[in-house]
Amino acid sequence: MKNLFRIVLLAVAAAIASSGFAQEKMAVFYNWHNISYNTPDTVVYDVGISIQSPYCVSLKPYNGKDKKLKKLLKDNALAISVNDSVWFVNSDYLRKHYVGPDLNYLDDYTPLYFNDKIAYTQYSDINDSKFLHDLAVYVSNGMGTTETLRLMTSYAFNFQNAYLFVIDPKTHTVETLTSDNMSLRLTPYLDMRRRYESMYFYREPFVINHFFLEYTDRILLDDSIPYLIE
C-alpha cells in the first residue's frame, strides 16, 4: 500500500511539474497578530510548492541558491497563505518555539485552520491513494495551484480520522486533541458534553472531530472565551 501511495504521489508531482503553473502570490507571516489581521510581513512569488500528502506541503525557492529565502521559509515564517486563500503553518517553527507531545508527527507545512478564537492543524498517516490519483487528474486537466491546494486542504479538513492539533499562541503550546481534553473543552457546554460522551466511539478521532467543529462554532458566540489575539 505504501508503494502504491508513493507511485500516486509521484504522479501528482509530475502532473504539477508539467502543468505550467503560474507563479502564485505567497504571503508570509511571522506572528499571530498579522495572521489574524491578514497583514503579511512579506510577499514572495518565486517559491515552488510540492504536495507530500493531504497534510503536508514543502516549500522551496525556485532559485536553489537563494539562501535568504530558504531560511525565511524554514526558520522565520510562522505561516503562509497562497493567494489569500489557502493557509499553512510551519511545523519547524512550531517545534522550535512551541511545546507539544506530538509535534514530531508534523512535517514541513501543514494545513492551518483558524477563526477569531481558535487555531488548529491536522495530521493523519492514512494515505488515500484514490484522492491523490484524482488530484493528479485535476491538475493534468488544468487546475491551478490555489484550486489544487484548496481541494487538498478541504479533503484534509473533512477527513474524519485525522488527528487534531490545537495551537495556542498565548501559551505557546500545541495540544493533541484526545477524548479527555475534548471532554474538558466541552465542560462549559453540558449539552454538547453529554451528547459527546454518550457516543459509543467517543474516543475515536471521527467522533472527536465532529464535536470539535461544533465546538469551534459555539465558542465564537461565547463572550467568555477570549479571542485568539487580543
What is the number of helical segments per DSSP (H or I, 4+ residues)? 9
Distance between the termini: 46 Å
Going by helix content, strand content and strand pairing, the class is: alpha+beta
Range of strand content: 15-25%
Q: Give the low-confidence spans.
A: 1-11, 13-22
Radius of gyration: 18 Å
Using the alpha-carbon principal axes, give the shape: globular
* Sequence of secondary-structure elements: HEHEEEHEEHEEEHHEEHHH
Helix content: 40-55%
As laid out across the biggest beta sheet, the strand order is 2-1-5-6-7
- Give me the count of strands: 11
Chain-averaged pLDDT: 84
Largest sheet: 5 strands, antiparallel
Describe this structure in words.
The chain has 230 residues and is α+β, with helices and mostly antiparallel strands. Helices cover 42% and strands 21% of the residues. It has helices at 2-18, 32-36, 67-76, 91-97, 129-140, 145-158, 179-185, 190-197, 205-220; strands spanning 26-29, 42-44, 47-53, 56-61, 79-82, 86-90, 109-111, 113-114, 119-123, 163-168, 173-176. The chain has a 5-stranded antiparallel β-sheet. Helix 1 (2-18) packs parallel to helix 5 and helix 5 runs antiparallel to helix 6 (145-158). It is globular and about 55 Å long. The termini are far apart.
